[in-house]
Each structure stands twice: as C-alpha cells, then as structure tokens.
Amino acid sequence: MNVLSKFTSLSRRQILFPLAILLSTLVTNGIILALCSYNPWEALWVAIVGAFGNGQRIAETLIKGVPFLLTGLAVAFSFRCGIWNIGAEGQFLVGAIASTWCGMQIAPHLPAVLAIPLTLLVGAAAGGFWALIAALLKVYRGVQEVISTIMLNYVAIHLLSYMVDGGPLQEAAKRGPQSDMIAAASYLPRLIPHTRFHLGLPLAIALAIILSIVLFRTVLGYQIRAVGANPKAAQAAGISISKNVILALFISGALAGLGGAIELTALTRRLFLNFSPGYGYTAIAVALLAKLHPLWVILSSLLFGALKTGSDAMQQMAGISAKMTFVIQATIIFFVLIYGVSSFREQRRKLNVG
Amino acid sequence: MRMKHYSFKILAFLLIFGTACLLGMIACDKKAAEKPFKVGLLLPGSASDAGWNALAFEGLKAIEKELGAQISHIESRTPADQEDHFRSYAQNGYSLVFGHGYEYQDPAKAVAPDFPGTVFVTSSGSTILKNVAPIVFEMEEATYLLGVIAGMMTQTGKVGVVGGTNIPSINSTFMAFEGGVKAANPDAEVRRAYVGDWDNIGKAKEIALAQINEGIDFIFHNANAAGRGVFEAMENARQSGKDVFCFGSNRDQSHVSPTTILANAVISLDCFVRVARSVKDGTFEAKTLNMTMSNDEAIKVVYNPELADKIPEHVTKKVEEVKSQILAKQIEVPRIHFGVDDL
Questions:
Q1: Burial B69-86, CB ≥16 within 10 A → b, else e
Q2: Apex A107 CA angle, A102 and A111, nearest 5
Q3: Nearest CA to CA, how far is B123 from chain A (Å)?
Q4: How would you list the strands of the sheet with B289-291, edge to edge?
C-alpha cells in the first residue's frame, strides 16, 4: 500500500476510504437483496452485464448519462456562484417544450445543418430565460431562488401537461398526451448504427470542458466563484453580485434547457407527458458527488447512467422488482454521496489550513 | 501538481470503467449458450396494481405455466426507455416481447426491423409490421354491459367514469359504458374525469369523492393502480351511509374492494397464452389480434360473488339478454374504431 501511495501521491486514507465505501455499498445491498430472497451475486453480475455487457449496452449507459450530465452541469455551475438552483427540472422541461415547437414549426423549412443547432439553441435559450425569472426576482425583489426555482418547476410541469394534453403541441390525431414527431431535419444524429449513441454525449462533454475552463481559467469564472465563496467580500472587491447571479442562473438554466432539447431531438423525438423522470432533481446529487467540478460531473453522470441500465438489467435478467432496484440505486447514491461530501469537506479543510 | 492529481484520478476511473466493460462482455458470452422459449413483458406501471398491469403479469405467468416459457418483465414507464428495453430483450434471444400499452408502438416499430427473429406485440394500437402486431382487447362489449347495470340501478340518474389519462383506448371503453347507461336509462347523465396519470391513488380518490358529492352513485374506473382511490372513496361513502357502487376493470378486482365492486369487465389470461402459443408453434401471423366477448369469452363480465344479492334479478336477466343481442350483432356498441380513426 505504501508503494502505491508513493507512486500516486495519494495518502493511504485517500485510497482506503473509497475502497471502504465500495465494500460497504456492496455488503449493504447484498444483505438487502438476500433478506428479500434474491441472489445478490446474480444481481451484481447481471447489473454489470446490463451496464457494460457489450457495445450496445455501453452505448446505452453512456447516453442514459447525458441528461444527468447536462442538468448536473447546470446545478454545479449555479452552486459555484452560491445560487441554489433547484429548478433544473423545470428548465429541462421548458427547453424540451421550446425545441419541440422549433422542431415542428421552423425546422421543416430548413436544412439539417441549420435546423439542428437552431432547435438546440432555442431549447437552451428557453431554459435560460426560465431561470432568468428566478434570477431577476432574486436580484430586484430579494426572493430566495430556492423557493422560486422550485415553484417554477411546478409551473413548467403543468405547462408541459397543458401543451401535450389538449394544448397547442398535442399531436394532430389527438390520440394521447404527446406531440407529433418533430421534423426529421432537426433529429440529432445517432452515431453508431443499431444503438442510440448520439452526438449529444460528445457535445455535452465538450461543454463540460469549456465550463471548467470558464470557471477556473477566466475572469468571469473567478468572479462567479468569488460571489459564491463570499458575496460581501466579492462586492467589496468591486465584483457585481447581481450581474454574476443573473449570468450564473442564465447559463445554468441554458444548460438544463439544452439537456431537454438534446433528450428530445436525439432520443424521444416527440414531447410527451412526464417527459422527465426527475432528471433535474437527481442532478443535485450528480453535482454534489462531482464536488461541483464540471469535469467530475462527466464521471458522476456516467455513474448514474450505469445505475439506470444496471437496474433495468436486474429487472429484465434477474427478475428483481422495480421497487427493489430503486432501493438499491438509492443505497448506492447514499454511500457515494457520503464519499463525495466527506472528501469535499477534507478538501475545504486543507484549503483553510494551507 | 493539481493537474497531475486529476489526470491520475481520471486514469483510474477509465481503468475501472474498462474493467467493468471487460467483465460485462465476458459474462455476456457465457450466457449465450442455451435457447429456451423466452417471453418478455414491458409494463407501463407496477405489476402489483391489481389491474391492467397485474393482468398482463398474470398472463405472463400463465404463459410460463402452460408453455414452459422462460419469462421476464420490466417496468418501462417513459418512451425514452421503451426502445432500449425492447432491444435488450430481443438481443437476449427473447422470441416474444409484449409491450402492454398503446404507447409501445413507436419503439416496437423502431426496434423490430433489427430483430426479425423476435415478435413484438403491443396491447392495443394499429401498427403492423412483419414481426409487430397489436393485441386488441375489445373491452367495449363488456363495459357496455356494465353501463347497462349502472343505468338500470342508478337512483340519482348520475353515473361517473374515472380514467387514468385521456387516451383513445380508455375513451373507447367510456364511450361503450356511456352507450350502455343511455340504452338502459336515456335520461341518465354520465360525467367523465381523468386522474392525469395511472398511479395517483390520492387524486383518484378526490375525484371520486367529488363525483359522489355531486350525486353520482355508480362509478366505472379505468385507471390501473389509481383505481384503488376510487374504491377507497366508495368505501368511505358507503360507511357514511350512501348507497353507491363501482365496477372493476381489466381484471376481476372483486377481492380488492369486496364491499363496493358489483361487477368487473375482465380480460381472460388466455388472450396472452393464445398469442404466445402461436409464436411458439410458428403459426403467428402479423395482423390485429382481436380479443372480444364473442371470441371464446376472451373478454367477459364477472360479478362480485359477495354482492350478488345487491343486483336485482331483472337486471342480471337484462344483461344476459343484451349480451346475446351483442353477440348476435343486433346491438352495435359505440366505440372508437382503431385502425380506421388512426389513419
């Protein structure tokens, strides 16, 4: 162990702690499964196969991570500015609604080269403006963004159900609460045949890299982090709080909105009731696990993607009930967050001392 | 120093990811050997809803028992997942995969061409490809009969229906129910309400209570798991002395609320077994698989034995009479004609 720690410049604690977390996750879930008379070994095996079993499964794991990645980036970015944007869910939905509109109304008249970026941009802009409402309320009326963003989630959810259930975006045949397919010109291309692996993932990873450069290598990023770390000190140093709050929330909302637009144009290609199974809320766990660092969000969203495909496989191949797979997912997230939060605190402590 | 730190962590992560992939691929190879008859099922809700989903799950178990099939099911609630779930069953060598709902047509259409050896069957719908076909449970004749019961027995002249969401397959059963009510009692009024989803028991209960307060004394629900809310509201109302009753849908739900359910419109499990048998024998043909009351009672009305004495004899007689008229095509049950209206 000593050799390894020398080689990697990690302390013994930094190596042992994650291993302990991994072990306790496995043991806890093993016990839960065994108590409910499932075979824990089979479950573990099947989950790994389901998430990484072949190219198709890996592709599915990767793309299941994309909505977590974009909403996770959204949350991480605003949290860095000290803004608790709990509204990624609503911004995601509004993004999807706007790009559905664009995909049906404008995209048919355009070539794909224009239609795709335009549809994505419209989604991102809609998400951004949705978040802007909360930003302006905060800056000019002192409304807590935690409350306003949560409230705006409900508005977005009901806006969606109005749109597809009797509203202007419902399909022409009026069969069900869903929209018609968007124009083929606005389909985000799928890159590998017979899988759903699409351009959204490379796009989102590129965004994560750009965001980490913005946050840690530019003046704008410095100001945003300064406001997040200590708004009064930042203001005293001549950094405008309101400007940065507005900017951070707009960018955050735009990221979540883009997430909705990508999910729509790449995967579902039509809008429907309950479009998001709660991506925007899970995103908070994704971002916290990543210690609010955009690059780490890539990896933590991948973990959440694997949890999804792994638990699907547990249902399909090991006959484990859906409810049980949710219990397992929650346990894993719980342990992983213990790791994430405690190493986050350790990092902070070091910063204070050093 | 900082950058090095990160690059190590990312390297370590990629190593773990790679190992997981490798492990997964090895495991996958091992499983490909044997080839039993495998049947999968995609459910839009929980298999324990005592209604629509439980019905298909029991159908799946009947297939296991009668045909010795290896079975598996998964909750596949959002369109974003359905395509993947179809694909992974097909990839694992399943010969038949049911998508238990109207909404599984798009994903079935997307996946089917890649897997000619797998048959995809959606519950209701109109999409037919070489290996895709809808199984259509024509509940309408049975719900028409329930409507007749409600129409003849209502004291207030007001009858309610509660649906999950506003979709055609549900509305079609409501049209038939309303037809039955009006046939028996032309002055009766039928109110429709929707829960907005299939799970929200609390909301369904509120809706049913509101209907009961408006004077409605018979409710037919077609809301899967949420239907329990209707039963709860009914039980409350009966305890407070109101003379109200309801009906079960899709499955014999009498045991779920023995004191309030008069009768049920039931899909027989044999519907699923028939389809699976044809796939196993190689006699499956891609066409609309209609399951009706006249088709060996694939669909039927089942009375709740506990409340048999609450239904007057002239009502049950009338129901039998109307039933034979429907089977003899003397009555046309109002409904949505799928495959015609869809085009």
A1: bebbbbbbbbbbbbbbbb
A2: 150
A3: 15
A4: B70-75, B38-43, B96-99, B119-123, B132-137, B289-291
Q: Which residue has the tokens 């009375």?
A: B303
Is CATH 3.40.470.10 correct for B38-138+272-278?
no
* Bridge partners for B71 per DSSP: B39
Q: Determine which of A15, A268, A282, A323 to mutate to test the interface with B (most B C-beta atoms within 10 Å).
A: A268
What residue ranges do the domains of chain B occupy? 38-138+272-278, 140-267+299-327
B89: nearest CA partner in chain A:
A316
Q: Taking CB atoms and an 8 Å cutoff, what residues of chain A touch B87?
A: 56
A121 by DSSP, 3-state: which?
helix
Q: Which residues of A touch B25 (CB under 8 A)?
A: 52-54
* Chain B residues whose beta carbon lies within 8 Å of the beta carbon of residue A194: 114
Structure-token pair, residue B37? 């008859």
Nearest-Cα distance to chain B for A242, in Å, is 31
Q: Is B91 on the interface with A (CB under 8 A)?
A: yes
- Report d(CA A69, CA A77) in Å as an integer: 12
Nearest to A316 among B17, B47, B85 (CB): B85
Q: Do B196 and A270 touch (CB under 8 A)?
A: no
- Is ipTM strictly over 0.85? no
Residues of A in contact with B78 (CB under 8 A): 274-275, 277
Interval A276-314: pLDDT, tens: 999 999 999 999 888 899 999 999 999 999 999 999 999
User: Which CATH architecture is the domain A63-353 placed in?
Assistant: Orthogonal Bundle (1.10)
Give the start-to-end residue ranges of the domains of chain A.
63-353
Is CATH 3.40.50.2300 the right assignment for the domain spanning B140-267+299-327? yes
Residue A350 has pLDDT above 70, yes or no: no
Model pLDDT for residues A83-118, shown as the tens digit of each residue: 999 999 999 999 999 999 999 999 999 999 999 999
Are B114 and B280 contacting, i.e. CB atoms less than 8 angstroms apart?
no
Which helix (H) or strand (E) segment is B301 a member of? strand B299-303
Topology agreement, domain B38-138+272-278 and domain B140-267+299-327: yes
